[in-house]
Write a structure and sequence with these properties.
The chain is mainly beta. Helix content is about 0%, strand content about 55%. The protein has strands at about 5, 10, 15-25, 30-40, 45-50, 55-60, 65-70, 75-80, 90-100, 105, 110-115. The N and C termini lie far apart (about 40 Å).
Length: about 120
Amino acid sequence: VQLQAYGGGSVQPGGSLRLSCAASGTIFGVKLMAWYRQAPGNQRELVASMASYGTTSYADSVKGRFTISRDNARNTVYLQMNSLKPEDTAVYYCNVRAVGQSDFWGQGTLVTVSS
């Protein structure tokens, strides 16, 4: 199974983007789905996560602005990003953690927030 992330792009401050992460098949035993990001010169950081039973968690820097969601029928996880700021500029990666398997990672999608 492979993950493909898409939906990144360039947007002005205050704008919105929705990232999608589609799995090529069903991943069994999913424990956690998450979005990470990595800005130039920085370490990869956890942005948002959703446990298999639905509980969500967000980095303080994106609380109230970003929303993680999923569509099980489409094997897709989303990240709705509103009120974007220049400091949100990064490559965003989706991640799926499943029981007894190595982590699944998407290829990354670039988000640029600039006026």
